Amino acid sequence: MHFKNIKCILFDLDGVLVDGHPLQLKSTLDSLKKYINCTKEVKSLVNETIPTKEKLKILKSRGLIKKSDINKIYNNKRKLFDKIAQKKIKFNKKINNVFKKLKEKNLKVAVVTNSNKSSAIKILKKLQIINLLDLLVTNANRIKPKPNPEPYNYAIKKLKVEKKNSLIFEDSPVGILSAKRSGANYFLIKNPNQINLKFLNKILKIKL
């Protein structure tokens, strides 16, 4: 599969640029342990690729946690995730080169994630690509999260490009549904190792 006349590439973060899902899972479960028994049911929900606050609201609706504890659990989870991420996430030369080459070719580049802004920025600084982005979309933008198409629609509008000239890289069912609903081109990424110059040259049909 290849795409023509692409002028803008939008990357998800966890699962596309970094393997952050295991870190998200651990930090959320560790934060919940103080409040509830992490049963198979709880672990299954936490494993879903939806925002942490959405997971906590679901747990509250099931009567497993109190509404007053949601922010406490969420804030502790963020702290734990940032601490783990700083140790586990390393500079990735292949991804760094991809972003440099995309900018050299004057393609617009964005990261669109359900993650919180603070954590996303720390990860992007680790990868040394924060200054190579035209746009970063996070839950701080106060838009409906994936699987709603709004994060991608928002990014495409901000970057002033046509959907037909935009390509989204996603890894999860939630992200793919968001991308599909947006009407832009999209491609399923199986793991961050796929993101390299050879791969992009092949699907974009341009020399990076």
Total separate domains:
2
CATH topology of the largest domain: Rossmann fold
Instruction: Characterize the largest beta sheet: strand count, sense, and whether it forms a barrel.
Output: 5 strands, parallel
What is the SS-derived class? Answer: alpha/beta
Tell me the CATH architecture of the largest domain.
3-Layer(aba) Sandwich
* Oligomer type: single chain
Residues in β-strands, percent: 5-15%
Number of H/I helices: 9
Amino-to-carboxy terminus distance: 17 Å
User: What Rg, in angstroms, do the CA atoms define?
Assistant: 17 Å
Helix content: 40-55%
Structural features, described:
It is a single chain. The protein is built from 9 helices and 5 strands. The protein is of the alpha/beta class and 208 residues long. It has 2 domains: 8-19 and 90-204, 3-Layer(aba) Sandwich (Rossmann fold), CATH 3.40.50.1000; 21-88. It has a 5-stranded parallel β-sheet with strand order 3-2-1-4-5, with helices on both faces. Helix 6 (117-126) links the parallel strand 2 and strand 3 (135-137).
